[in-house]
Write a structure and sequence with these properties.
This protein is an alpha/beta fold. It is 36% helix and 13% strand. The protein contains 13 helices and 14 strands. 45% of the residues are buried. The structure holds pyridoxal-5'-phosphate.
């Protein structure tokens, strides 16, 4: 009978052959082919791994996940990293961990305040609302789209327990000031790094400064596994809480398919449970099940091989656009990286300056018609979103930049699947549009 490993080898060779054809570079025809804003960049690394994971038949997290978590922790230089099924789940776990009674008086409770911004993605702030804490919105800076750090201290009250913010479009927020504020007022910091894998501040990876960092592996992001994410921390106590919350809230920490890792499976006495209640079924946190499958991890592992090149290409594309848009500065506020940072750009944000020739909606509709995709800065001003009606929150100061973003900001793609020919087409199309409007 044919040996299983020999069959695997044949399958793998065939998958490589298939992938090389399927993912071969295609010629770009301006106007006909879409210029996407983001997208997955795959080759045989991912397909071979995913098929391998399918043939393992393990399905829940296994060898691929172990390797993925190890390699990504090493890349980020963090003590612990847990995969989860989305960036939103990563934010949920990070925040809910900070509400754990295990943290004593530092646990975030209903009515406590959390400083954040309104110009961003909703699931950065949704966990705050879910746990009945109060998001306190501070304005952002125009051009770098991150919190205006000068305004943070004015927003702090006796109720403030945490700061939870995203590094907008890969541009790190001012970590030196924010870490100082967190230390001074004893605040937790959650760095939503979903759009910022590989971004650095003072040479250190974002996400590793605060108490938790989070990542998304949805296809738009720096690396993908279809759906997926990660939550990471250098604090081992927080890691244990986060892991438990990810895994149903259980007290037991056995890997899937394993038993009695603690060696005391039937010897525990916790809560009001009877003596010796099976540790597998003891729940010490209010948890969920937010794990991934090994096939997702297998895809992620293929992507990790390419991560450094992805970051280089994203930044190359960003800088190319920045240079070319220099001639259009009269019409657009160009993106600005934060001081002391090395962003790993997620997108190229532009804000239209007040002018009498065109507005954002007209421009992005025109771009769509030219097959050029663009995106808004997510929720724009989240306070204006339908789901926020009736929610409890506070605004500190004014949100005039956030309001301008709602009306006038959009972003273009820089992802590694974009070639110079495509970027030139984007710039030429926008220049032509402005010339036409000015006539
Ligand atoms: C800043 C930010 N946080 C969180 C998320 C949520 O990630 P996911 O789509 O994996 O849930 C996103 C999604 O793009 C995001 O941009």
């Amino acid at each position: 009978m044919e040996h299983l490993n020999d069959i695997r080898k044949k399958i793998s060779d065939l998958v490589i052959h298939y992938s090389n054809i399927k993912y071969a570079k295609k010629n770009f025809t301006p106007g006909f082919d879409k210029v996407q804003v983001s997208g997955k960049v795959l080759d045989h690394d991912e397909t071979v791994n995913m098929v391998d994971a399918a043939l393992d038949g393990h399905l829940t997290t296994g060898r691929f996940n172990i390797e993925f978590e190890k390699k990504l922790s090493r890349f980020l230089n963090t003590r612990s990293l847990l995969t989860v099924n989305s960036g939103s789940s990563a934010n949920l776990i990070a925040f809910s961990s900070l509400t754990s009674p295990k943290l004593g008086s530092r646990a975030i409770k209903p009515g406590d305040e959390v400083i954040t911004v309104a110009a961003g993605f909703p699931t950065t702030i949704n966990p705050i609302l879910l746990y009945k804490a109060i998001p306190v919105f501070v304005d952002v800076k125009m051009g770098n789209y991150n919190i205006d750090e000068e305004r943070i201290e004015r927003a702090i009250t006796k109720k403030t327990k945490a700061i939870m913010l995203a590094h907008t479009l890969g541009n790190p927020f001012n970590l030196s000031t924010i870490i100082k504020i967190c230390k001074k007022y004893n605040l937790w910091l959650v760095e939503d790094s979903c759009d910022a894998l590989g971004s650095k501040f003072n040479g250190q990876n974002v996400g590793t400064f605060g108490d938790f960092g989070t990542l998304s592996f949805y296809p738009a992001h720096h690396i993908t596994m279809g759906e997926g994410g990660a939550v990471f921390t250098n604090n081992i106590k927080l890691k244990k809480i986060a892991e438990s919350i990810r895994d149903w809230g259980r007290d037991c920490f056995c890997a899937p398919g394993k038993d009695n890792s603690c060696g005391r499976r039937f010897c525990w006495k916790l809560g009001n449970l009877p003596d010796g209640y099976d540790h597998k079924y003891i729940y010490s946190n209010l948890g969920f099940n937010l794990k991934i499958t090994d096939m997702q991890a297998a895809c992620g592992l293929g992507q990790l091989k390419k991560l450094n090149n992805f970051i280089k290409k994203r930044n190359y594309n960003f800088n190319y656009l920045l240079k070319k848009f220099g001639s259009l500065e009269e019409f657009f506020i160009l993106p600005e990286k934060t001081i002391n940072s090395e962003p790993s750009w997620f997108g190229f944000p532009l804000t239209i300056r007040d002018n009498r020739y065109f507005n954002r909606n007209e421009l992005i509709k025109y771009l769509e018609h030219k097959n050029i995709h663009s995106r808004l800065l997510f929720a724009g001003n989240v306070l204006k979103q339908p789901y926020m009606i009736g929610q409890t929150y506070r605004v500190s100061g004014t949100l005039e930049n956030t309001e301008k973003i709602l009306f006038d900001t959009f972003w273009l793609g820089v992802f590694p699947g974009l070639e110079i020919q495509m970027l030139d087409y984007v710039i030429d199309s926008i220049s032509e549009y402005i010339l036409f409007k000015k006539k």
